[in-house]
Amino acid sequence: MAGLYLHVPFCKSRCAYCAFYSQTNTRQQEAFVAALCRELELRREELAPSISIETVYFGGGTPSLLSPSQLEKIVDTIRRVYSPEPDAEWTLEGNPDDLTPEYAHALRLLRFNRVSLGVQSFCDEELRFLGRRHTARQVYSAIEALRTADFSNISIDLIYSLPGQSHQLWQQNLSSALVLEIPHISAYNLTYEEHTRLTHLARRGSIEKQSDEDALRDYYYLVDTLHGRGYDHYELSNFAFRGMHSRHNSSYWDRVPYLGFGPSAHSYLPESRYANVAHLHRYIEYLQQGTTAIDFREDLSPTDCFNEIIMTGLRRAKGVDLQNVSEVFGRKKLSFLQTASEPYLAQGLLILDSSSQYSIEAPSPSICKERVANEGQFLRASREGMVVIDSIISDLFLL
């Protein structure tokens, strides 16, 4: 199996926190669509014909800025060249003010079956601060339009730990999402990326970052509240009702091959990773000349692959399958991982569990350690460990 990712690099305005490649000049949309369709055709042979396409993801940028007719050209090319599985997951990221009833209906006619909305907040003041162009009222209208068009698989993004955000306001944001009964929620602790307006404001002292203690309080409120409402906390920042996990994102974490199309898009095949040029004009020029736009490539060593399995595994509820580590990398690397994990197991930040089914909020570390004292097959982060998982992961890497 494999996935396709298509990066649509257009935005009407630039969000204060976003570091993804995008531009606000939309005059090249038609040229971009033509180049993207050409790239889809040129790179088909990178995947063996026997490999099935099970997920297609339009990200950005703001894919919902493309017109239905532009999307149709791309979708038709994908279906003709790659023949995705009949039950493939087709996701489009959208901005709430783009999701009119007519647009939502057009997406269904194109057989999209999942939409991810960049909501971020239900507070208009916070939305203005973040540079979002929609209002809270437009979120409700977009959800209604999607459901009227028969979309049941809807995801929203939320951000917490904003400067000046009170705990009460974060509670209200989460409550607003729960009232809508959204089946998938991605909630992110605000990060300050280089070359963003938010980081510039912080360095000037114009805004004050939220304290680590307040961010931790908000995170625990998030996981406890969503767990109590039946959401599966299946990855550090992702929550979903049973059966509504993002198949596309899960394939990333399972290291399933995928091809990325569009400027700045990344691709992954076993033991290699590569990316397109992060420049729209150059991207279009390459494709008009009949060549691909790849300008970065790296071969992954066994050590790189080991580190990726640790990184992607420990950010997920399922954890790292130790038997798989032993089979793929050998007993020596498994022994390294076990030894490096011991301090975190002793602190209860990591746990060993023999069950393949697990929820981050479920059993306590002490119960887990007693139950699998003689037979641990999965290495996982505990509730407390998930908060500091990035620093733990770095200590488990092979150098």
Automatic annotation (TrEMBL):
Where mainly found?
Answer: cytoplasm
Q: Does the keyword Chaperone apply?
A: yes
Q: Where in the cell is it found?
A: Cytoplasm
Task: Identify one Pfam family in the record.
Answer: Radical_SAM
Recorded GO terms, molecular function? Answer: 4 iron, 4 sulfur cluster binding; coproporphyrinogen oxidase activity; metal ion binding
**The keyword Transcription is assigned to this record:** no
Residues covered by the Radical SAM core domain: 1-232
SMART domains linked: Elp3
**Which InterPro entries does UniProt cross-reference here?**
Coproporphyrinogen-III_oxidase, Elp3/MiaA/NifB-like_rSAM, HemN_C, HemW-like, rSAM, rSAM_horseshoe, rSAM_sf
**Biological-process GO terms, alphabetical:** porphyrin-containing compound biosynthetic process
Any one cellular component term from GO for this entry?
A: cytoplasm
Keywords assigned: 4Fe-4S, Chaperone, Cytoplasm, Heme, Iron, Iron-sulfur, Metal-binding, Oxidoreductase, S-adenosyl-L-methionine
| Family to which the UniProt record says this protein belongs | Belongs to the anaerobic coproporphyrinogen-III oxidase family. HemW subfamily.
State the function annotated in the UniProt record.
Answer: Probably acts as a heme chaperone, transferring heme to an unknown acceptor. Binds one molecule of heme per monomer, possibly covalently. Binds 1 [4Fe-4S] cluster. The cluster is coordinated with 3 cysteines and an exchangeable S-adenosyl-L-methionine.
Q: What is this protein called?
A: Heme chaperone HemW
Organism of this sequence: Porphyromonas endodontalis (strain ATCC 35406 / DSM 24491 / JCM 8526 / CCUG 16442 / BCRC 14492 / NCTC 13058 / HG 370)
